[in-house]
Amino acid sequence: MEVLSAASEFFPLSKTGGLGDVVGALPKVLAPLGISTTTLIPAYPGLVEKLSAVSKIAELELLGEKADLLAGSFEDIPILLLDCASLFARPGGPYLNEQGVDHPDNWKRFGALSLAAAYIAAGKGGPWRPDLVHLHDWQTGLAAAYMAALGVKIPIVTTIHNLAFQGQFSADIFTRLGLPASYFSTEYLEYYGDISYLKSGIVLSDAITTVSPTYAREILTDDMGMGLQGVLSERRERLQGIVNGIDTDVWDPAKDPLIPARYDRRSLKRRDINKSEIVERFGLVDDGGPIMSVISRLTWQKGIDILTAVVPGIVDRGAKLVVFGQGDPSLINPLIDLASKYQGRVAVFAGFSEAHAHLLHAGSDIVVQPSRFEPCGLTQLYALRYGAIPIVSRTGGLAETIIDANEAAMAAGVATGFQFNPGSAEDLYHAVDRALRSYEQPDFWRKLQSHAMKADFSWKRSARQYAKIYSRVLRSGPS
Ligand code: ADP
Ligand code: GLC
Asked: Of ligand 2's atoms, which has the minimum distance to the CA of residue 378?
């Protein structure tokens, strides 16, 4: 089976969060199941040079912009790059400019990416044609509309990684997308007077997946459906949650080239070396006490303000905190103030670095994820594998991947972390307190670490679930 996976990120070529990790992992985990995946992504600056055997396979005209479609491979994984300098060769990140503001022409950039995917599916993007198209998030959602408009009869699977990002744009751009006028309707793209690219993926796909079964249920509710609950509910028979796995080659404390001391379950003492490196790199006092870390986009979704409220409590309890990430200055600034108040006990570092992220998992005692909602979350899974104990809010993928260390779960040998009610600083503090009291009992803690490191979040099961969905939609054909 030949699959075209279309996305805006692919780790390690480009990544701003978990989307990149998942899109990067899928081709590898699906290959043993007989599924060959070719991934289409934009040629952001510097990407062409990272591919092997690159050749131009088509010239495309996309929403008035000239583009080349390049075929190549990265570590033997087939990649198609949409090379369109006017849209993608610019400073900043995939979505934001250097000032941290959305690129003003994102509608066109990802409309063009979607149209390129549809052309490939239609056989107009070089010689290769997929049997099935897998779209990820709003950035490629419009491909479903373009495929329908082009009359392409290939099944489509859309994965929602985060319903908070919908690709909602003013209706003014609709005529510039070159779609039939009838698509500006509630059945298709119209969304509260605007248009939504994600809605295109939802209403025109043969199967819709999201990244955990819990989130699949949550997004049907008024509280968490972000305005799309009605559209999703109508298509609930096609909707399934598949929990993300992790790339156990990239995230393996026994082989990780990005950490000073490698270790496994039997050599946990070596984590101390990594912990010392954290103390040094992030300017903490060296008192041997517990280190808690947050490695995250620093946004409202991630509950950063809730964390801020408990920082004094964390420090009072004798723990240290490192916050590492990028995001909303109004959430980061109060943390920076706390870092100067509690010098050596609280460190806040802005930036994006795989090396820092790996080190923080490999040396912190606790990783905190106080998300208000979390479709799946990968950080807590990396934490488990690295023996850093997660404190997570009880929502989405966090609720189902972390087992709270209550008495019963400890007795059964399955507890892996601490949970609290999303949105409540008081509850977060209670979880922090429980975790720190457990940390003071070395036997208890070692057991918890051992359960955590044994938990299996490899892709095996989830890859089979994707393969099943692919087979099903191929059998029943496009609708
Ligand atoms: P989301 O996709 O919502 O941001 P996930 O937990 O699914 O959340 O994935 C986040 C991914 O991004 C993880 O791989 C995490 O390590 C990574 N990440 C987040 N912030 C940073 C950062 N500042 N530097 C490096 N990696 C980061
Ligand atoms: C999104 C979600 C995150 C999920 C990731 C990968 O960014 O916020 O929870 O793990 O996608 O699916």
From this structure: 10
